[in-house]
Amino acid sequence: MTGPHIYLVGAYGTGDMTTSMGRFTELLRAHLTSRGLGVDVLKPRAILGASKLVPKKLRPLAGLVDKLVLFPRELRRASRRARAAGTPYIFHICDQAYANYTGPLRDVPHLVTCHDVMGIEAALGRSPYMTFGWNTRLYQKMLLRGLNRAQRVVCVSETTRLALKAVSTIPDSRIRTILIGPNHPYSPMPEAEARERVGRLLGGAAGQPYILHVGANIWYKNRAGALRIFARLRELRAADDLRLVMVGRSFTPEMKAIVEEESLSGLVIPQVNIDSEDLRALYSRARAMIFPSLCEGFGWPILEAQSCGCPVLTTNRPPMTEVGGTAALYFDPADPAEAARTIAAGWGELPALSASGPANATRFNTERMMDEYVQTYRELAGA
Fold it and tell me: Is residue 335 part of a domain?
């Protein structure tokens, strides 16, 4: 396939593949390359921010120098090389957290993918959950300026598009929604393979029924809420020997304290940084996946679980409702006791949700997503 050369602008540092933004950049790179398009990935390198010559307490400030001073120079050099090559090209900033790079790219074809505007909303005093110090407010407003001057902004969900419209001055002609697709070919895993993988992961607890949670230790993922909902659910379903398997990072001190406070020791099983096929196995054997996020830009685990036939229990707010459609059970994440009652009342619906989930998940297709991105690239690059 012919088309413009794509320069993907990824995340600072190592581009950790355990993060959603790292996975998104790699998803784009892999699929664009498979279509025969030329792709380079450019990332702000941790130079001063990782230097042992810089005192540890000053490394966050040094990291800003990496991101705000050194990398823009690299972008300008890359854009000059791209222009000199004489063929169509485009720069794709893969995360709105780096929208400030529309500055050095203002004279070259570019777009930004916007996953959410939660940080910007907080900087503008519009978040019920977060408040920032003056320096973070300044940084987020800088990102908003970058989004406002972008040649094109692609939003991963309609929820994100509406939120962006509420905080920006970007005209409709420069915003489009491209629904994000799965970052791995999730589907129900054959029973024998799933049983073997789950047995290896969970050991002696592998034979016990479990609810699954997938998410990072970021405040809006509400992992503490997942623990409290699980505790209340066990009280309502005392005869059901449920466990809670939590996939993500190591538990925070707050989470450990809740486990002790709620007498959940031995009932909550952490799984740290597992690979996609092990996660697929966990989805395939779980009674359900609980996703009590307070807010999101999209919510990949909902799509992943439904693709595997795993019933989804999630928040009654967009974009969770946008992604889950009619194939999920919804609850209020702000009230763990009421959430548990809602789940317990709807427990009999799990087989129906398991059956309807895969069909709903087909609304989010990675090949269709890539078709729409390539079309956008060509429009902007004139290719």
Answer: yes
Residue 186 lies in a domain: no
Task: Mark whether 168 and 272 lie in a shared domain.
Answer: no
> Which residue, 168, 179, 113, is CA-closest to 145?
168
Task: Report whether pLDDT(100) > 70.
Answer: yes
Structure confidence by residue, pLDDT tens digits, 347-359? 999 999 999 999 9
The percent helix, strand, coil of the chain (3-state, each to 5) is 50, 15, 35
List, for residues 31-56, the tens digit of each pLDDT value: 999 999 999 999 998 888 888 888 88
pLDDT tens for residues 171-217? Answer: 999 999 999 999 999 999 999 999 999 999 998 777 889 999 999 99
Residues 226 and 118 in one domain: no
Q: What is the dihedral of CA 192, 196, 197, 203, to 10 degrees?
A: 140
- Please give the span between the terminal C-alpha atoms of the chain, in angstroms, as a whole number: 12
Structural tokens at position 202: 């969970």
Q: How many CA atoms lie within 13 A of 162 on its CB side?
A: 8
Q: Which residues contact 114 (CB under 8 A, 6 or more apart)?
A: 96, 99, 147, 153, 154, 155, 156, 160, 164, 297
